[in-house]
Amino acid sequence: MRFQKTPLHYIQYLCLKAACAALRLLPYSWAVAAGRFATGAVRFVMPKRFKRTMYDIQRAFPDKSPQEVYEIALESWRNMGAILSEFIHLTAMTPEKFKKYVDIIGAEKMLDAQNKKIGGIIHIGHFTNWEAFGLAGAVWGVDKAVLAQRVDNPYVDAETNRLRNIFTGRTFYSNHEDNPFFACMRWLKKGKLLGILIDQNATASEVWVRFMGRVAAFSPITALLAIKMQVPVFPVQVVRKMGKIVCIVHDPLTPPKEYSPKSVLEFTKVLVKCYEDWMKEDPASWLWAHNRWKREAEGERYLQEHPDEA
């Protein structure tokens, strides 16, 4: 069964701990450079996955040349190493030192909703360094939880969760045996903030939305919770500027007043468009290695059978 401990899982965990310890011995900038080099080189070990990355980028940006597509793909893969190295270093810092490397613009918007017990949903995805924002929210005083997927390795999952919440916070699991929906509702009802990654491939209870010109399966949970609980949704864009990770909290989006399957679908489309716009601005900062259109053929068939939703 998934999530059960095995000797191989423990060996993988020890290797991860050793890698983290080695990266922390390096200065921050050196560790980031090493991470970028390592995941960039992985393209030679996983050529099929890298080719898939280039294929998806070319489909999303048909006007770009093969060289431009290659450069976007390579930078995206290098970014994965930067994320890991940054995360490992940032979780070992004091809050004061942390702020030298990460900043939040618009944190007061979330804090105001928190202080007024309004609560809200943080709308974020696999862009630049989303884990850094999760840490930053806690450093800036946001009492937040995140909805995440468990890792199959229980040791690695526990360590990742510990580091993710090193400055306070908690995690609800979307792929655990317990349904997280009601736990999320109770959290929001307390007037707290909940972070949800929107750009993961949904495997159940999906809505079909065109994303970068292709049909993808999206979880409706962000729209559904926002409408049911009548809480604002805060789109958060993460960028790199002058060697610093900058998290931009955009003005909150107000959900529809009335719940219906159509309102959930339409609000999901609004949320998806946020990420489309940011990806068009900076495509290399998105996690293209993730096969976002895994169920594209299934989605196309569904929309042909339900033209009203297309």
What does this structure look like?
The chain is of the alpha/beta class and 310 residues long. The chain has one domain. The protein has twelve helices and nine strands. Strand 3, helix 8 and strand 4 form a beta-alpha-beta unit. The chain is globular and about 55 Å long. It starts with 6 loop residues before the first helix and ends in a 5-residue tail after the last helix. The model has no long low-confidence stretch (mean pLDDT 94).
Question: What's a concise summary of this model?
Answer:
With 310 residues, the chain is an alpha/beta fold.
Task: Outline the secondary-structure elements.
Blueprint: H1 7-25, H2 28-41, H3 47-60, H4 66-90, H5 95-98, E1 102-105, H6 107-115, E2 120-124, H7 130-139, E3 144-148, H8 154-164, E4 170-173, H9 181-189, E5 193-197, E6 207-211, E7 214-218, H10 221-229, E8 233-241, E9 244-249, H11 261-281, H12 296-305
Parallel strand pairs: 1-9, 2-5, 2-8, 3-4, 3-5
Antiparallel strand pairs: 6-7, 8-9
Percent in strands: 15-25%
Give the strand line-up of the largest sheet. Answer: 1-9-8-2-5-3-4
Order of helices and strands: HHHHHEHEHEHEHEEEHEEHH
Which term fits the overall shape? globular
Mean pLDDT: 94
Overall strand count? 9
Rg, Cα atoms, Å: 19 Å
| Number of discrete domains | 1
- Poorly predicted runs of 5 or more residues: none
Distance between the ends:
38 Å
Amount of helix: 40-55%
Descriptive key words:
310 residues, alpha/beta, seven-stranded mixed β-sheet, 15% strand
